[in-house]
Write a structure and sequence with these properties.
InterPro entries: P-loop_NTPase (IPR027417). With about 110 residues, the chain is mainly alpha-helical. It is built from four helices and no strands. About 0% of the residues are buried.
Length: about 110
């Protein structure tokens, strides 16, 4: 049974299969030069679409990379109310070149 798009969803067209390494190269080539600074790749998709699998494959080919699951950030926030938590606790620290260790306050006992 073909997947049905929800109202407002755009059909994916013009896609092609590439290796994970080629995808990383394409992403790096399309990004501005950020020598010495981390790059952030975001992956979006429906449940069961393979987001975690893709993230794990990217981590395998990109040295010193890490995965941040939005479920770990957004678990106790409104649908899109977790953006400030992401920026303050992860993205700003990465931007400053600091190590990132994030645990939601409610998880600390």
């Amino acid at each position: 049974m073909p997947m049905r798009l929800r109202p407002g969803e755009v059909e994916a067209v013009g896609w092609r299969v590439v290796t994970v390494l080629d995808a990383v190269r394409q992403l790096c080539d399309a990004s501005p030069d950020v020598t010495g600074r981390p790059q952030v790749i975001t992956i979006d998709g429906r449940g069961g679409a393979g987001k975690t699998t893709l993230a794990e494959r990217l981590r395998e080919v990109v040295p010193n990379s890490a995965i941040v699951h939005t479920d770990d950030i957004a678990w106790n926030h409104a649908y899109f109310g977790w953006g400030a938590v992401l920026v303050e606790n992860i993205l700003q620290r990465l931007h400053r070149g600091e190590a990132v260790h994030f645990r939601p306050d409610a998880w600390i006992t």
